[in-house]
């Protein structure tokens, strides 16, 4: 019998092989983009979450909005009670695929200074959220 010495895997090597699918959280609350900012704040409070996934009328994910950003919008001078999520989200995204490696996703999140990133399928439906550990 021959002894084989095993080397422990580095954390970096693990990130290169793990995918977002391995680490993402359940999608959590999803709201429609025609919801007002005030109602969205109430949803974050009642669901005790820091973010909401925003979807269009077809159920496709258009982005993610945080409680912090919603509060800043509500407290701004330009706020009205008719302001809808689609008005404050801007462009679609950013998103990631469940097949993206964790190393790639973490790099993108650090580069864009994101705490959470929606995970979507090929059609654009929300599958979950990748959130950085705090």
TrEMBL record:
* Alphabetical keyword list: CBS domain
The domain of life is: Bacteria
> Which Pfam families does this one have?
CBS
On whether Zinc is a keyword of this UniProt record, the answer is: no
Matching Gene3D superfamilies, A to Z? CBS-domain
Provide the CBS domain boundaries. 31-70, 95-130
Which InterPro entries did the record assign?
A: CBS_dom (IPR000644), CBS_dom_sf (IPR046342), Diverse_CBS-Domain (IPR051257)
PANTHER family annotated for this entry? CBS DOMAIN-CONTAINING PROTEIN CBSX3, MITOCHONDRIAL, REGULATORY PROTEIN
Q: What is this protein called?
A: CBS domain-containing protein
Q: Which organism is it from?
A: Streptomyces spororaveus
């Amino acid at each position: 019998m021959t002894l084989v010495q095993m080397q422990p895997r580095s954390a970096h090597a693990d990130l290169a092989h793990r995918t977002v699918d391995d680490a993402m959280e359940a999608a959590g609350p999803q709201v429609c983009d025609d919801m007002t900012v005030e109602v969205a704040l109430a949803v974050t409070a009642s669901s005790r979450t820091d973010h909401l996934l925003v979807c269009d009328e077809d159920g496709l994910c258009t982005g993610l909005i945080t409680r912090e950003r919603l509060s800043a919008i509500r407290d701004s001078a330009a706020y009205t009670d008719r302001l809808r999520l689609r008005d404050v989200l801007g462009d679609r995204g950013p998103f990631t695929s469940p097949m993206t490696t964790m190393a790639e996703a973490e790099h993108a999140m650090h580069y864009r200074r994101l705490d959470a990133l929606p995970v979507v399928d090929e059609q654009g439906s929300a599958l979950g959220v990748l959130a950085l550990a705090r």
